[in-house]
Amino acid sequence: MTTTTSPGPSLVLYHAWASSASRKVRMCLYEKGLTFDATVVDLNKFEHHSDWYKKLNPSGIVPALMVDGHPLVESNFINEYLDETYPTPPLRPTDPMLLHDMRLWGKYIDDTCLPAIQKHNWMHHFHPMAREWSDEELERRLAAIPTANRKHVWYRMARDPYTAEELEAALDILRDMMDRIEARIAKTGFVTGDAYSLADIAAAPYVIRTEELAPIEVSAEKRPHAAKWWAAIKARPAYKAAHMEPFNDQCWSGWMPPT
Ligand SMILES: N[C@@H](CCC(=O)N[C@@H](CS)C(=O)NCC(=O)O)C(=O)O
Question: What is the domain range of residue 169?
């Protein structure tokens, strides 16, 4: 997973192909044309809850970016680090108000849209596995998870799966996200301000999953401005390089995308 040559520290991305937060960082790395190595963290094998990985990301989640051996976590902050360190092409507005808006958008995506998409992603992939666990295995798995929030999600996958109502409510959150994107794009052509930025990158992994789950929500018929913006994002070389193929059985583990 190496692209063009760049000076500076060595970069190693620990990620999962299907993870929205990992996808954000891959998009940013490729926009910058950076050289980096990548290691897939196999979520099917719970590598993200292993002691070695929790040394990189104490929350036991992907991604983590090693910079000269120093681990950076949280995709929004990793992307800001990359933009600060490798300013070309710029991916943040210089206007302080717009910068605030970009950060608020990233927080909204992380706080609100991630839990919504996760409900669908995990029911699709992890519930069929977790429901088979014995009580002993469940206890062992939960003990390795460092945060209460993630323990709760895994417990739900094993014993109390999301209901149809919860999944529909999660889709409503994504519909609202699309409304917000439509309004922003209608105004300036981009999520924040009048240039492509980390705000557009933050949205992209959630838009692709919304398109897969409910194609009408991303259609020109329903949201013409967002649809035009989305087609332009999908045409970007960095989007293609970041590989956001539809989910398959291996997308949370060692699957390699076609080259
Ligand atoms: N706020 C974090 C979210 C990271 C996150 O939730 N990663 C998910 C995949 S998208 C994960 O590793 N989940 C594994 C688990 O909860 O067990 C970021 O942006 O880096």
Answer: 96-237
